[in-house]
């Protein structure tokens, strides 16, 4: 994603004058992501679309505090009175350039206040893109040989909705019982799902994938890059701007789950930090709160036939065919035997594993040698976005791998 | 109303008809009207004949069964008692109308009283509280009825007391006797009001009159106050004199105060002319006592002993009356609300009232849901 | 499908990146009239501002609670509460109690017997009843 576009969006978020519409941006965002390379023509299209939108009334007319019950979300001036909000600001070490008002806005979900000038949808779109970009470039540069399915899983583990919801909980963000103008702006405000509602619909329809109705067709991993979202899940197609009001009207009555609202808040906060404090602060925020979490990537693999994968891998890389040999064994006739099996390619030992049976030991040894290959991590990794800073060292190309073994 | 009772009330009418809603067997038993068969065996005091009598009649089949009236022990204790008392009563009732007729015949001027007022009190034990209220019983407050708290009236009272004590000093009369006259007439008060006090520290020489005439009049009046028997008449004549002269000389000064000066304390004056009296010392015990007595009479404030020990000038006495010496302690919430160090911190919130669950509900947006649910059920 | 990814959630390591203070709210309750609140009132008058300034990440609420002993109530990130009654305590002692709540994690107190706790799995592995002894079955 290009930096210029973000800056242009930031203007609309900050001033709250031009109504861009969150869903429109999502639409634009998905449109861009589907192109393999960012086309230079895209920004011009943005501007056109933005200008076509009707200008919303700039600021809500101020009303006396009596009628706060009539507002969908707390008024802007309430942010300065809330001690909860101020303490949250300090607890997250947010930069002082990020005002409390924006923090309060990032806590208002679109289901609480459908007005795009007062909810966090636009901020969340920006923050979502930033988080996805930073995480994916970190993963791809640090583990260049990681299979795509594992990359999806790692993305889900770092910035997935479950993680973000847990993060919001660990930050001490509480949520309201029902949104309204009288609530403390330090709470996460969203309309809850009615009891008994389906939280995770099994089948998502309306994606951009062709032949999506053919459920028994094989979906290749490569197609998931194109059609699905960053976690490899099917995603709804974007809506053209002409149909936006209908879609919004339909969605107004529905609530969102706590997990979804929390992840939207974290996205929005990331976007707000980027807008107000700049890119270095946003990267610092990302490193401190997201990358610092513990994730053991080697636990994310699920092999079904590691021996076959390893054979194909050795054939592709022109190694000798792998051979499993017993290195040592003990208690073959006892109740608990232990076999240690090594996988050898010619004279090189690729990996070894211990198990209670010969098959198990071989399986483990194959897994170990495959993980040894896939989890290769070069030293002194730099990510492409580090080149955005002033005075960065000249870029040296990172390791780009052939990719996973295709059976 | 307790919910169980309310439920019962709702349910009981429908018990005979449809039993749509459930009422537990115990409640149903309670709520069901008593069967008539059971009611027949109840003994009421109003029943003409007892149960055993009715049974006997039924057995014999006649209204006058032979034998003893009640074979099972006769009448009860209460019945026997009532039967003894009742016959003479009935005779009295029969006799009374004749006596009343006799009375009306003898006294034609009799009027029945509608209220107790004016009736002769009979049957008391000659105690004090049985007698009607006499003049000695009426309570008159030593001090003025209304307690003054504002600065203006308090200064006026203090000034008046100071002038009077000064006058008594100058006249060499007993100081405490100024308290005999609680409130002076308006012309005299006007003259007192115009007197000034020099803060030179001596009571007898501090007073400064606006003119010679005032000095003479005041001296004349306060001469009268000490002499008890002749005082009222003399004072009246003096007042008449003064009043006449006042009206002739400076009518505008008399008109100056507010129109409702008769009701207003200190005849509508708002504040004193000079503050010289504040520096007068209260070191002499007699003067101090007299001054504080007069001041407390005029202002309505009571001076406790420890405070009286502390006071050494008129200023302190006035300050005490204004509540400056021992102020009411300030609430902590008010103190903290003015603390700039706390106000500048955004993470501190100070409340002056106890926080309840309702506040928390309002903060979390739950209150409006609760209220809506209560309204929907008609409970709010 | 040669390899599949397993979805998990990255676990938090508080303090490795940013440190989130676990105490998020402190309520100070006092009574204007009662003598057991004398120390609390003095603390609120003279020491609270310093404490609040040093801990901007804690939301501090001061409210009266008439005819009750003074109390400090701490609300923690994990949703638990801790309440300390500070009746008849001096302001310095109350400051210590407030600091105690500030530094608490909100968990129930428990004895720690092991010197080190780790989120990494043990090198030895965990004994399993399904592995080993297969021959005998």
From TrEMBL, chain A:
<dbReference type="Pfam" id="PF22892">
    <property type="entry name" value="DSRM_MRPL44"/>
</dbReference>
<feature type="domain" description="RNase III">
    <location>
        <begin position="85"/>
        <end position="173"/>
    </location>
</feature>
<dbReference type="GO" id="GO:0006396">
    <property type="term" value="P:RNA processing"/>
</dbReference>
<keyword id="KW-0687">Ribonucleoprotein</keyword>
<feature type="region of interest" description="Disordered">
    <location>
        <begin position="52"/>
        <end position="76"/>
    </location>
</feature>
<comment type="similarity">
    <text>Belongs to the ribonuclease III family. Mitochondrion-specific ribosomal protein mL44 subfamily.</text>
</comment>
<feature type="compositionally biased region" description="Low complexity">
    <location>
        <begin position="53"/>
        <end position="68"/>
    </location>
</feature>
<dbReference type="InterPro" id="IPR036389">
    <property type="entry name" value="RNase_III_sf"/>
</dbReference>
<keyword id="KW-0694">RNA-binding</keyword>
<keyword id="KW-0496">Mitochondrion</keyword>
<dbReference type="InterPro" id="IPR044444">
    <property type="entry name" value="Ribosomal_mL44_DSRM_metazoa"/>
</dbReference>
<protein>
    <recommendedName>
        <fullName>Large ribosomal subunit protein mL44</fullName>
    </recommendedName>
</protein>
<dbReference type="GO" id="GO:0003725">
    <property type="term" value="F:double-stranded RNA binding"/>
</dbReference>
<dbReference type="GO" id="GO:0005739">
    <property type="term" value="C:mitochondrion"/>
</dbReference>
<keyword id="KW-0689">Ribosomal protein</keyword>
UniProtKB/TrEMBL annotation, chain B:
<dbReference type="Pfam" id="PF10501">
    <property type="entry name" value="Ribosomal_L50"/>
</dbReference>
<keyword id="KW-0689">Ribosomal protein</keyword>
<comment type="similarity">
    <text>Belongs to the mitochondrion-specific ribosomal protein mL50 family.</text>
</comment>
<protein>
    <recommendedName>
        <fullName>Large ribosomal subunit protein mL50</fullName>
    </recommendedName>
</protein>
<dbReference type="InterPro" id="IPR018305">
    <property type="entry name" value="Ribosomal_m50"/>
</dbReference>
<keyword id="KW-0687">Ribonucleoprotein</keyword>
<dbReference type="GO" id="GO:0005739">
    <property type="term" value="C:mitochondrion"/>
</dbReference>
<dbReference type="GO" id="GO:0005840">
    <property type="term" value="C:ribosome"/>
</dbReference>
<keyword id="KW-0496">Mitochondrion</keyword>
<dbReference type="GO" id="GO:1990904">
    <property type="term" value="C:ribonucleoprotein complex"/>
</dbReference>
From TrEMBL, chain C:
<feature type="domain" description="Ribosomal protein/NADH dehydrogenase">
    <location>
        <begin position="32"/>
        <end position="105"/>
    </location>
</feature>
<comment type="similarity">
    <text>Belongs to the mitochondrion-specific ribosomal protein mL43 family.</text>
</comment>
<keyword id="KW-0689">Ribosomal protein</keyword>
<keyword id="KW-0687">Ribonucleoprotein</keyword>
<dbReference type="Pfam" id="PF05047">
    <property type="entry name" value="L51_S25_CI-B8"/>
</dbReference>
<dbReference type="InterPro" id="IPR007741">
    <property type="entry name" value="Ribosomal_mL43/mS25/NADH_DH"/>
</dbReference>
<dbReference type="GO" id="GO:0003735">
    <property type="term" value="F:structural constituent of ribosome"/>
</dbReference>
<dbReference type="InterPro" id="IPR039927">
    <property type="entry name" value="Ribosomal_mL43"/>
</dbReference>
<dbReference type="GO" id="GO:0032543">
    <property type="term" value="P:mitochondrial translation"/>
</dbReference>
<dbReference type="InterPro" id="IPR036249">
    <property type="entry name" value="Thioredoxin-like_sf"/>
</dbReference>
<dbReference type="GO" id="GO:0005762">
    <property type="term" value="C:mitochondrial large ribosomal subunit"/>
</dbReference>
<protein>
    <recommendedName>
        <fullName>Large ribosomal subunit protein mL43</fullName>
    </recommendedName>
</protein>
<keyword id="KW-0496">Mitochondrion</keyword>
């Amino acid at each position: 994603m290009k930096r210029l576009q973000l800056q242009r969006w930031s203007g609309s978020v900050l001033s709250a004058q031009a109504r861009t519409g969150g869903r429109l941006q999502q639409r634009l965002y998905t449109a861009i992501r589907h192109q393999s390379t960012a086309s230079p023509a895209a920004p011009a299209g943005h501007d056109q679309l933005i200008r076509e939108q009707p200008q919303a009334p700039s600021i809500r007319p101020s009303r006396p505090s009596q009628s706060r019950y009539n507002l969908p979300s707390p008024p802007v001036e309430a942010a300065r009175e809330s001690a909860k909000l101020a303490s949250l600001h300090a607890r997250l070490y947010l930069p002082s350039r990020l005002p409390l008002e924006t923090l309060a806005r990032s806590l208002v979900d679109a289901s609480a206040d459908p007005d795009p000038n007062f909810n966090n949808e636009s901020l969340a779109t920006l923050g979502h893109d930033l988080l996805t970009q930073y995480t994916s470039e970190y993963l791809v540069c640090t583990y260049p040989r990681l299979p795509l399915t594992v990359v999806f899983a790692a993305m889900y583990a770092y910035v997935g909705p479950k993680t973000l919801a847990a993060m919001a909980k660990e930050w001490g963000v509480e949520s309201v019982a029902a949104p309204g103008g009288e609530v403390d702006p330090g709470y996460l405000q969203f309309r809850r799902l009615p009891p008994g509602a389906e939280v995770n619909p099994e089948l998502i329809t309306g994606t951009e994938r062709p032949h999506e109705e053919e459920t028994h067709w094989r979906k290749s991993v490569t197609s998931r890059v194109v059609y699905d979202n960053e976690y490899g899940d099917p995603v709804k197609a974007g809506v053209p701007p002409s149909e936006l009001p209908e879609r919004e009207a339909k969605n107004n009555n529905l609530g969102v789950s706590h997990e979804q609202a929390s992840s939207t808040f974290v996205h929005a906060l990331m976007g707000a930090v980027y807008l107000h404090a700049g890119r270095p602060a946003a990267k610092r925020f990302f490193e401190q709160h997201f990358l610092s979490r513990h994730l053991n990537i080697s636990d994310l693999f699920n092999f079904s036939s590691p021996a076959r994968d390893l054979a194909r891998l050795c054939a592709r890389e022109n190694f000798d065919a792998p051979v499993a040999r017993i290195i040592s064994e003990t208690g073959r006739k006892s109740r608990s035997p232990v076999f240690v099996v090594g996988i050898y390619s010619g004279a090189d030992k690729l990996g070894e594993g211990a198990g209670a049976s010969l098959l198990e030991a071989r399986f483990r040894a194959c897994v170990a040698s495959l993980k040894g290959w896939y989890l290769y991590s070069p030293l002194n990794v730099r990510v492409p976005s580090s080149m955005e800073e002033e005075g960065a060292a000249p870029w040296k190309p990172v390791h780009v791998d052939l990719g996973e073994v295709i059976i | 109303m307790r919910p169980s009772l309310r439920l019962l009330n709702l349910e009981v009418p429908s018990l005979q008809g449809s039993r749509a809603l459930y009422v537990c067997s115990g409640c149903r038993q309670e709520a069901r009207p008593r069967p008539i068969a059971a009611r027949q065996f109840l003994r009421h005091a109003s029943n003409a004949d007892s149960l055993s009598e009715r049974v006997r009649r039924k057995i014999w089949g006649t209204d006058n069964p032979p034998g003893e009236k009640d074979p099972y022990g006769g009448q009860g204790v209460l019945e026997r008692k009532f039967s003894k008392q009742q016959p003479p009563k009935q005779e009295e009732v029969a006799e009374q109308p004749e006596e009343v007729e006799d009375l009306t015949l003898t006294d034609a001027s009799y009027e029945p009283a509608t209220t107790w007022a004016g009736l002769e009190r009979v049957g008391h034990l000659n105690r004090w509280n049985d007698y009607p209220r006499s003049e000695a019983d009426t309570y008159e407050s030593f001090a003025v009825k209304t307690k003054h708290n504002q600065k203006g009236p308090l200064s006026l009272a203090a000034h008046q007391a100071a002038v009077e004590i000064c006058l008594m000093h100058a006249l060499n009369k007993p100081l405490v006797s100024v308290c005999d006259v609680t409130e002076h007439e308006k012309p005299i008060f006007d003259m007192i009001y115009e007197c000034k006090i020099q803060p030179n520290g001596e009571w007898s020489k501090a007073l400064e009159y606006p003119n010679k005439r005032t000095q003479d009049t005041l001296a004349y009046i306060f001469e009268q106050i000490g002499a008890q028997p002749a005082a009222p008449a003399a004072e009246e004549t003096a007042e008449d004199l003064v009043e006449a002269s006042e009206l002739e000389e400076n009518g505008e000064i008399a008109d100056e105060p507010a129109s409702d000066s008769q009701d207003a304390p200190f005849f509508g004056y708002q504040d004193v002319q000079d503050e010289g009296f504040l520096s007068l010392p209260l070191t002499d015990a007699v003067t101090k006592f007299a001054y504080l007595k007069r001041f407390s009479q005029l202002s309505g404030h009571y001076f406790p002993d420890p405070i009286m020990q502390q006071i050494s000038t008129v200023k302190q006495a006035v300050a005490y009356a204004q509540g400056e010496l021992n102020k009411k302690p300030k609430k902590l919430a008010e103190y903290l609300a003015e603390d700039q160090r706390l106000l500048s911190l955004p993470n501190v919130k100070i409340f002056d009232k106890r926080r309840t669950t309702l506040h928390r509900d309002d903060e979390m947006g739950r209150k409006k849901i609760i209220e809506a649910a209560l309204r929907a059920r008609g409970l709010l | 499908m040669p390899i599949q990814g397993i979805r998990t959630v990255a676990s938090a390591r508080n303090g490795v990146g940013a440190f989130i203070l676990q105490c998020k709210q402190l309520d100070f309750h006092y009574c204007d009239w009662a003598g057991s609140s004398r120390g609390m009132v003095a603390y609120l008058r003279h020491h609270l501002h310093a404490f609040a300034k040093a801990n901007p990440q804690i939301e501090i609420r001061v409210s009266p609670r008439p005819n009750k002993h003074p109390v400090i109530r701490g609300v923690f990130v994990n949703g638990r509460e801790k309440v300390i009654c500070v009746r008849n305590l001096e302001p310095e002692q109350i400051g210590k109690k407030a600091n105690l709540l500030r530094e608490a994690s909100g968990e129930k107190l428990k004895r720690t017997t092991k010197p080190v706790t780790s989120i990494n799995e043990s090198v030895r592995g965990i004994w399993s009843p399904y592995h080993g002894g297969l021959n005998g079955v």
